[in-house]
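Researcher: Let's do a round of design. I'm pasting the C-alpha coordinates now; please hold your answer until I've finished.
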Protein backbone atom coordinates (compact mmCIF):
# COMPACT_ATOMS: atom_id res chain seq x y z
CA UNK A 1 0.00 0.00 0.00
CA UNK A 2 1.23 3.47 -0.88
CA UNK A 3 0.88 6.40 1.53
CA UNK A 4 0.65 9.81 -0.12
CA UNK A 5 0.74 12.99 1.94
CA UNK A 6 0.94 15.72 -0.70
CA UNK A 7 -1.91 17.00 -2.87
CA UNK A 8 0.51 17.46 -5.77
CA UNK A 9 1.76 13.86 -5.57
CA UNK A 10 -1.80 12.52 -5.27
CA UNK A 11 -2.89 14.45 -8.36
CA UNK A 12 0.05 13.14 -10.39
CA UNK A 13 -0.64 9.61 -9.21
CA UNK A 14 -4.31 9.94 -10.19
CA UNK A 15 -3.30 11.10 -13.70
CA UNK A 16 -0.87 8.18 -13.94
CA UNK A 17 -3.58 5.64 -13.00
CA UNK A 18 -6.02 7.19 -15.46
CA UNK A 19 -3.45 7.29 -18.27
CA UNK A 20 -3.19 3.49 -18.20
CA UNK A 21 -6.96 3.06 -18.03
CA UNK A 22 -7.22 2.24 -14.32
CA UNK A 23 -10.51 3.07 -12.64
CA UNK A 24 -10.21 4.79 -9.28
CA UNK A 25 -12.57 4.57 -6.30
CA UNK A 26 -12.37 6.93 -3.34
CA UNK A 27 -13.34 6.07 0.22
CA UNK A 28 -13.31 9.40 2.06
CA UNK A 29 -12.72 9.13 5.83
CA UNK A 30 -11.50 11.13 8.78
CA UNK A 31 -9.54 8.11 10.04
CA UNK A 32 -10.07 6.29 13.35
CA UNK A 33 -11.09 3.43 11.12
CA UNK A 34 -13.61 0.87 12.31
CA UNK A 35 -15.50 -2.00 10.69
CA UNK A 36 -17.86 0.50 9.05
CA UNK A 37 -15.02 2.13 7.10
CA UNK A 38 -13.58 -1.25 6.18
CA UNK A 39 -16.98 -2.31 4.82
CA UNK A 40 -16.85 0.74 2.51
CA UNK A 41 -13.43 -0.41 1.32
CA UNK A 42 -14.81 -3.89 0.63
CA UNK A 43 -17.58 -2.42 -1.53
CA UNK A 44 -15.05 -0.09 -3.21
CA UNK A 45 -12.79 -2.99 -4.20
CA UNK A 46 -15.64 -4.49 -6.24
CA UNK A 47 -16.13 -1.25 -8.17
CA UNK A 48 -12.73 -0.26 -9.54
CA UNK A 49 -9.06 -1.15 -10.03
CA UNK A 50 -7.47 1.23 -7.54
CA UNK A 51 -8.82 2.00 -4.06
CA UNK A 52 -7.80 5.33 -2.53
CA UNK A 53 -8.79 5.93 1.07
CA UNK A 54 -8.44 9.51 2.24
CA UNK A 55 -7.65 9.98 5.93
CA UNK A 56 -8.09 13.64 6.76
CA UNK A 57 -9.67 15.24 9.82
CA UNK A 58 -11.21 18.16 7.99
CA UNK A 59 -11.07 21.32 10.14
CA UNK A 60 -13.72 23.22 8.15
CA UNK A 61 -16.53 20.81 9.02
CA UNK A 62 -16.12 21.27 12.79
CA UNK A 63 -17.89 24.13 14.57
CA UNK A 64 -15.95 26.35 17.00
CA UNK A 65 -16.97 24.32 20.08
CA UNK A 66 -16.82 20.88 18.49
CA UNK A 67 -14.27 18.08 18.89
CA UNK A 68 -11.73 18.92 16.13
CA UNK A 69 -8.69 18.95 18.40
CA UNK A 70 -9.64 15.82 20.35
CA UNK A 71 -10.92 13.84 17.33
CA UNK A 72 -9.00 10.51 17.41
CA UNK A 73 -6.02 10.32 15.00
CA UNK A 74 -4.53 6.79 15.28
CA UNK A 75 -2.79 7.18 11.91
CA UNK A 76 -0.33 4.23 12.04
CA UNK A 77 -3.10 1.90 13.19
CA UNK A 78 -5.38 3.23 10.41
CA UNK A 79 -2.68 2.49 7.81
CA UNK A 80 -2.25 -1.04 9.16
CA UNK A 81 -6.00 -1.66 9.02
CA UNK A 82 -6.35 -0.16 5.53
CA UNK A 83 -3.45 -2.23 4.19
CA UNK A 84 -4.74 -5.44 5.78
CA UNK A 85 -8.12 -4.78 4.13
CA UNK A 86 -6.48 -4.46 0.72
CA UNK A 87 -6.40 -0.68 0.23
CA UNK A 88 -4.01 0.47 -2.52
CA UNK A 89 -3.40 4.10 -1.54
CA UNK A 90 -3.93 6.05 1.67
CA UNK A 91 -4.08 9.77 0.99
CA UNK A 92 -3.39 11.74 4.18
CA UNK A 93 -2.66 15.37 3.39
CA UNK A 94 -1.67 17.95 5.99
CA UNK A 95 -4.33 20.56 6.80
CA UNK A 96 -2.02 23.27 5.45
CA UNK A 97 -1.81 21.50 2.09
CA UNK A 98 -5.59 21.18 1.76
CA UNK A 99 -6.17 24.71 3.06
CA UNK A 100 -3.14 26.85 2.23
CA UNK A 101 -3.03 30.39 3.67
CA UNK A 102 -4.69 32.03 0.64
CA UNK A 103 -7.51 29.47 0.49
CA UNK A 104 -10.79 31.36 0.14
CA UNK A 105 -13.22 29.18 -1.85
CA UNK A 106 -15.97 26.99 -0.43
CA UNK A 107 -18.84 24.96 -1.80
CA UNK A 108 -22.30 25.71 -0.42
CA UNK A 109 -25.30 23.51 -1.17
CA UNK A 110 -28.40 25.49 -0.16
CA UNK A 111 -31.66 24.31 1.42
CA UNK A 112 -31.04 20.71 2.41
CA UNK A 113 -27.94 21.69 4.40
CA UNK A 114 -30.13 23.70 6.81
CA UNK A 115 -32.31 20.71 7.72
CA UNK A 116 -31.73 17.92 10.30
CA UNK A 117 -28.08 18.20 11.48
CA UNK A 118 -27.75 21.57 9.71
CA UNK A 119 -29.94 23.18 12.40
CA UNK A 120 -27.37 22.67 15.14
CA UNK A 121 -24.30 22.54 12.86
CA UNK A 122 -24.87 25.49 10.50
CA UNK A 123 -21.40 25.46 8.89
CA UNK A 124 -20.77 21.70 8.96
CA UNK A 125 -21.98 20.71 5.51
CA UNK A 126 -20.23 23.56 3.76
CA UNK A 127 -16.98 22.17 5.22
CA UNK A 128 -17.93 18.68 4.04
CA UNK A 129 -18.82 19.64 0.46
CA UNK A 130 -15.73 21.84 0.18
CA UNK A 131 -13.36 19.10 1.26
CA UNK A 132 -15.13 16.40 -0.74
CA UNK A 133 -14.93 18.44 -3.95
CA UNK A 134 -11.23 19.07 -3.26
CA UNK A 135 -10.72 15.32 -2.76
CA UNK A 136 -12.59 14.60 -6.01
CA UNK A 137 -10.40 17.12 -7.83
CA UNK A 138 -7.07 15.72 -6.66
CA UNK A 139 -7.94 11.99 -6.58
CA UNK A 140 -10.09 12.09 -9.76
CA UNK A 141 -12.15 9.03 -8.76
CA UNK A 142 -14.65 7.31 -11.03
CA UNK A 143 -16.58 6.24 -7.91
CA UNK A 144 -16.80 7.41 -4.31
CA UNK A 145 -18.33 5.32 -1.53
CA UNK A 146 -20.16 7.01 1.36
CA UNK A 147 -21.87 5.35 4.32
CA UNK A 148 -25.61 5.63 4.78
CA UNK A 149 -24.94 6.34 8.46
CA UNK A 150 -24.44 9.96 7.35
CA UNK A 151 -27.56 9.93 5.17
CA UNK A 152 -27.92 13.71 5.01
CA UNK A 153 -24.27 14.05 3.98
CA UNK A 154 -24.79 11.46 1.24
CA UNK A 155 -27.88 13.27 -0.11
CA UNK A 156 -26.04 16.62 -0.04
CA UNK A 157 -23.03 15.20 -1.88
CA UNK A 158 -25.27 13.68 -4.53
CA UNK A 159 -26.91 17.13 -4.94
CA UNK A 160 -23.48 18.77 -5.33
CA UNK A 161 -22.33 16.14 -7.85
CA UNK A 162 -25.47 16.64 -9.90
CA UNK A 163 -25.44 20.45 -9.68
CA UNK A 164 -21.71 20.83 -10.50
CA UNK A 165 -21.52 17.98 -13.05
CA UNK A 166 -18.82 16.18 -11.05
CA UNK A 167 -17.78 13.14 -13.13
CA UNK A 168 -18.04 10.64 -10.26
CA UNK A 169 -20.62 8.01 -9.29
CA UNK A 170 -21.66 8.19 -5.64
CA UNK A 171 -22.25 4.76 -4.12
CA UNK A 172 -24.18 4.35 -0.84
CA UNK A 173 -23.03 1.69 1.63
CA UNK A 174 -25.28 0.20 4.35
CA UNK A 175 -24.84 1.10 8.02
CA UNK A 176 -22.68 -1.35 9.97
CA UNK A 177 -23.89 -2.00 13.51
CA UNK A 178 -22.62 -3.54 16.74
CA UNK A 179 -24.32 -6.79 17.77
CA UNK A 180 -26.81 -4.87 19.92
CA UNK A 181 -27.68 -2.50 17.05
CA UNK A 182 -25.60 0.59 17.84
CA UNK A 183 -24.40 2.12 14.56
CA UNK A 184 -20.60 2.11 14.33
CA UNK A 185 -19.03 5.56 14.65
CA UNK A 186 -15.57 6.83 15.54
CA UNK A 187 -17.28 8.94 18.20
CA UNK A 188 -18.59 5.82 20.04
CA UNK A 189 -15.11 5.74 21.61
CA UNK A 190 -16.09 8.82 23.68
CA UNK A 191 -19.06 7.04 25.34
CA UNK A 192 -18.96 6.11 29.02
CA UNK A 193 -20.06 2.57 29.90
CA UNK A 194 -23.48 3.77 31.05
CA UNK A 195 -23.95 5.82 27.88
CA UNK A 196 -22.89 2.87 25.75
CA UNK A 197 -25.63 0.74 27.38
CA UNK A 198 -28.26 3.48 26.98
CA UNK A 199 -27.27 4.14 23.34
CA UNK A 200 -28.89 0.86 22.28
CA UNK A 201 -32.27 2.61 22.68
CA UNK A 202 -31.49 4.62 19.54
CA UNK A 203 -31.38 1.66 17.17
CA UNK A 204 -34.18 -0.06 19.11
CA UNK A 205 -36.42 2.94 18.41
CA UNK A 206 -35.57 2.84 14.71
CA UNK A 207 -36.21 -0.92 14.55
CA UNK A 208 -39.58 -0.46 16.23
CA UNK A 209 -40.48 2.14 13.61
CA UNK A 210 -39.41 -0.19 10.81
CA UNK A 211 -41.72 -2.86 12.23
CA UNK A 212 -44.68 -0.46 12.48
CA UNK A 213 -44.06 0.67 8.90
CA UNK A 214 -43.94 -2.90 7.63
CA UNK A 215 -47.20 -3.56 9.53
CA UNK A 216 -48.78 -0.76 7.47
CA UNK A 217 -48.44 2.43 9.55
CA UNK A 218 -47.94 5.40 7.21
CA UNK A 219 -48.64 8.36 9.53
CA UNK A 220 -45.39 9.77 10.84
CA UNK A 221 -46.65 11.16 14.19
CA UNK A 222 -46.99 7.71 15.88
CA UNK A 223 -43.67 6.62 14.36
CA UNK A 224 -41.87 9.65 15.79
CA UNK A 225 -43.59 9.09 19.15
CA UNK A 226 -42.30 5.50 19.22
CA UNK A 227 -38.71 6.73 19.00
CA UNK A 228 -39.27 9.56 21.48
CA UNK A 229 -40.68 7.03 23.97
CA UNK A 230 -37.47 4.98 23.69
CA UNK A 231 -35.32 8.05 24.21
CA UNK A 232 -37.36 8.95 27.28
CA UNK A 233 -36.38 5.61 28.86
CA UNK A 234 -32.90 6.96 29.64
CA UNK A 235 -32.02 10.24 31.31
CA UNK A 236 -28.66 10.00 29.53
CA UNK A 237 -30.23 10.62 26.12
CA UNK A 238 -30.99 14.23 25.22
CA UNK A 239 -32.74 14.14 21.84
CA UNK A 240 -31.70 16.81 19.34
CA UNK A 241 -34.15 15.80 16.65
CA UNK A 242 -36.36 12.90 15.59
CA UNK A 243 -37.64 13.55 12.09
CA UNK A 244 -39.21 11.74 9.17
CA UNK A 245 -38.41 13.52 5.92
CA UNK A 246 -38.57 12.96 2.18
CA UNK A 247 -35.40 11.67 0.50
CA UNK A 248 -34.92 14.62 -1.85
CA UNK A 249 -35.52 17.93 -0.05
CA UNK A 250 -35.39 16.49 3.48
CA UNK A 251 -38.70 18.15 4.32
CA UNK A 252 -40.78 16.64 7.14
CA UNK A 253 -43.73 14.55 5.94
CA UNK A 254 -46.98 13.78 7.81
CA UNK A 255 -47.69 10.65 5.85
CA UNK A 256 -45.26 8.39 3.99
CA UNK A 257 -46.41 7.98 0.39
CA UNK A 258 -43.64 5.65 -0.81
CA UNK A 259 -40.32 6.21 0.93
CA UNK A 260 -38.86 8.38 3.70
CA UNK A 261 -35.78 8.90 5.84
CA UNK A 262 -36.20 8.48 9.59
CA UNK A 263 -33.30 10.41 11.11
CA UNK A 264 -32.35 10.98 14.72
CA UNK A 265 -29.64 12.86 16.58
CA UNK A 266 -29.06 13.04 20.30
CA UNK A 267 -26.47 14.04 22.88
CA UNK A 268 -25.38 11.60 25.53
CA UNK A 269 -25.54 13.28 28.93
CA UNK A 270 -22.21 12.36 30.54
CA UNK A 271 -19.65 12.78 27.75
CA UNK A 272 -21.77 15.14 25.61
CA UNK A 273 -21.14 12.84 22.65
CA UNK A 274 -23.44 13.53 19.72
CA UNK A 275 -24.81 10.39 18.05
CA UNK A 276 -26.80 10.13 14.84
CA UNK A 277 -28.60 7.21 13.25
CA UNK A 278 -31.26 6.60 10.62
CA UNK A 279 -33.26 4.14 8.57
CA UNK A 280 -34.85 4.44 5.17
CA UNK A 281 -38.46 3.26 4.96
CA UNK A 282 -39.78 1.95 1.66
CA UNK A 283 -36.74 2.79 -0.44
CA UNK A 284 -32.99 3.20 -0.52
CA UNK A 285 -30.31 5.83 -0.96
O1 LIG B 1 -18.03 11.24 6.66
C1 LIG B 1 -16.89 11.66 6.95
O2 LIG B 1 -16.08 10.98 7.58
C2 LIG B 1 -16.50 13.07 6.50
O3 LIG B 1 -17.56 13.95 6.60
C3 LIG B 1 -15.86 13.10 5.11
C4 LIG B 1 -16.85 12.68 4.04
C5 LIG B 1 -14.64 12.20 5.07
C6 LIG B 1 -15.42 14.53 4.77
O4 LIG B 1 -14.46 15.00 5.66
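Researcher: That's everything. Go ahead.
Model: Designed sequence:
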Amino acid sequence: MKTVTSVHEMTNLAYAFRSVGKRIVLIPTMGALHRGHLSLLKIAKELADVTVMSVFVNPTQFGPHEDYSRYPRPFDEDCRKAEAAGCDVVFAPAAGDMYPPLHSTSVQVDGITTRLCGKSRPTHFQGVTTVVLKLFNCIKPHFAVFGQKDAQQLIIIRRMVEDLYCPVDIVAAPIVRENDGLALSSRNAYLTQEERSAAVLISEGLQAVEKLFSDGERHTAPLIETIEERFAQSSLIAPEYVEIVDLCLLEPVDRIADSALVAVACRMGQSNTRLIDNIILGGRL
